[in-house]
Amino acid sequence: MTSSLLLRGLLAGLLAGLLAFGFARVAGEPEVDRAIAFESAVSHAGHDDEPEIVSRETQRSLGLFTGVLVYSTALGGLFSLVFAASMGRVARPLGPRGLAALLALLGFVAIILVPDLTYPANPPSVGHPDTIRLRTGLFFLMLLVSAASMAAAVHLARSLAERWGAWNAVLGGVAAYLLVMLLAHHLFPAIDEVPSGFPATLLWQFRITSLGLHMVLWTSLGLLFGWLAEQRLLRGPSW
């Protein structure tokens, strides 16, 4: 059963990655090009040119395609394992598609949306070398805190369901998660890497597009895997 779901998760992740790549190519790359053009103008003004190791055309085609598909396929595999572990706990009232949609929503919120509110995405050309590693480490630490808090909130909601009822238990879990993440947001240091003079509109558009990319990926993954899992669980194994 688990191996069959894992195979479907990898396939769903691959297909979701293709959709996310298309979105990134159409909506994301123009923003990256404009950010690079800004950095190039600043570098030329300061005579700080650096050799291009990988061509921009390779980055926006083969590099982007490979990176997105490797990430999305691995994510699909992990998603299928979480789905398999959750089936006996919350799957009965929801069904395979409902459970997959719920997990995709929780995953997007915990892994993408909430950490991004503290450390939002920056264009590749934006950032100080001295703080990039620190900011990256803090982002992943925030991601771990968010994911662990989400798992704890789900467990809390399930524990309270019998005494409080489903709605009140869910509200209690949501409140607990928000409280922990608000505290984490307050405790984690703020790092502002955006150089002065960088167009605010361009930065805002890039960050919205980055969230849109992840939204396409997680939505596609939840819907595709839910459909594939339903074929396996309700209609019997065909492959």
TrEMBL record:
Q: Establish whether keyword tRNA processing is in the entry.
A: no
Keyword list (alphabetical) reads:
Membrane, Transmembrane, Transmembrane helix
The cross-references to InterPro entries, in alphabetical order and at most eight, read: CbtA_put
Where are the bilayer-spanning segments?
64-87, 99-118, 138-157, 169-188, 208-229
**Keyword Transmembrane helix on this protein?**
yes
Q: Which domain of life is it from?
A: Bacteria
One Pfam family this sequence matches: CbtA
Write down what this protein is called: Putative integral membrane protein
Q: Which source organism does the UniProt entry give?
A: Frateuria aurantia (strain ATCC 33424 / DSM 6220 / KCTC 2777 / LMG 1558 / NBRC 3245 / NCIMB 13370) (Acetobacter aurantius)
